[in-house]
Amino acid sequence: MKTYEYIVVGGGPAGIFSAIYAGSFGIKTAILEKKNRMGKKILVAGSGQCNITHTGEVKDFLTKYGDHGKFLRTAIYKYSPQDLQSFFKDNGLELVPREDGKIFPITKRSVDVVELLYTLCKKYSVDIIEECEVLSITHNDNFNLNTSLGDFNSTNILLSTGGITFPQTGSDGQGYKFAKTLGHKIVEPKPCLTPVYIRDYPFTELAGISFKDISISVFDRDKKINSSKGDILFTHKNLSGPGILDNSRYMKKGNQISFNFIDMTAEEFKEDFIEYTNAHGKNLTKTFLNTYNLPERFIKNMLFEAEICECIKISSLTKKMRDNLGKLLTDYQYEITKLGGIDIGMATNGGINLKEINPKTMESKLVKGLYFAGEIMDIDGDTGGYNIQAAISTGILAARNITKSK
What we know:
Layout: E1 2-9, H1 13-24, E2 29-33, H2 40-44, E3 53-54, H3 58-61, H4 73-78, H5 81-90, E4 95-97, E5 102-105, H6 110-123, E6 127-130, E7 134-139, E8 143-147, E9 150-159, H7 174-181, E10 186-192, E11 196-198, E12 210-220, E13 223-234, E14 239-240, H8 242-247, E15 256-260, H9 266-280, H10 285-289, H11 296-305, H12 319-330, E16 333-339, E17 347-352, E18 370-372, H13 386-403
Parallel strand pairs: 1-2, 1-9, 2-6, 9-18
Antiparallel strand pairs: 3-5, 4-5, 7-8, 8-9, 10-17, 11-16, 12-13, 12-15, 13-14, 15-16
C-alpha cells in the first residue's frame, strides 16, 4: 500500500493546481488520474486555446455563478484571476485578454498550459499516477483508496473528478458515488452551458444570425423563474450564444423561453406602430420593422410567423396581425423540448450539496480530511473562463488548509 499525506482524485484544473500548491509546501502528494494523461479538460477548454479565466474584479466574478457565487467568495478572493495570471507569468507562460474579456495563454495553445503543469508537478515532487481508476474509497482514521493499480492510503483526499459533461475527458460522475459512500448528498446533476432546443424550431433559415444583449426570460408554466440580458445565436437546429448557454442552468424540458428583440413592451410597440401608420401608412410593414435595425432575414421570418405578407402596406394590417407581430417581437414564449446532452454541455449544474462543505476551507463538514474542488460541487459558472477559475481557486483553498499544519 502506498501512503501519502494528500491524494488528489482527478487530474483536472482543480486537482492539478491543488496538488502543485500542496507539493510546494513539502506535502507528500499524489494525483490519481484514470485517463492516460492528466489535464484533458484543460486541453479542450476554449476550443483547444484554453480560455483559462476572465478579466474583471472579484466582486464581478461572484455574480457569474448563478445563485452560488457567495459560496466561492473566500476561494476567489484568496486566489483571484489576477493571482492566476501572475502564476503563469512567473512560470514563463503569460496570459493575455481578448477584447471580450476572455483570457488565454499568449501562445493560444492548451497543450502549453498542461505541459507547464506537468513540469511544476515534477518540480514539487507530486506523483502523477495515470491510468489509475479509483474503485472505492473508505474512511477510518485515514482514507483507503482501492484502485486498478493497487491500494493507497492518505490522511487527506481531494475529490476533483468533475461533473458529468465531456465524459471523454474523465468527467463521468464517478466522484458522486464516492461522495455518497462517505455520507454526502448530491444535487441531481445535469448539463449546463449548453444549447437549448425548442418545439417546432422556427429559425432554421436564420442560422448564423445573432442578437446582442437582448432580454431573455424563462418560465415554468405561468411563473417567471429567471430573466436576464445576453447575446443569442440561431443555429440550424437550436438556440445558442452566451445568453442561452449562461442561462441554461435555469432551464429544463417543458419550460418556456421568450425574447424581447426590440427592447420595448408590446404596448410600446403598439404605440410605435400606430404613430408610424398615421405618418407613413403607405409604407410596407417590413419598412416599418427596418426602423428597429433588425436583420432582413429575421424580418421576413417574423412576418411569415405572424402570417403577414411581405408586400402588405402597414395601414392594411388588422389589429390581430399587429398584436401577433408585437408578441413575436417582444414576449412570445417557445416551449423548451430539451437541453444539449453531456456530450455538448460545457459544464455541470448540480453536484455535491454545498451545505455540507465549509466554504472557507473546501473541507467536508461530515468527514475530516475530505475536500472537494471544482465541478464536482454544485457550482457552475458562465461561459468565458469562470469555471476553470472557480476550479483552480477552490483547489488551492483546499490545499491551503492542509498546508496550515506544516
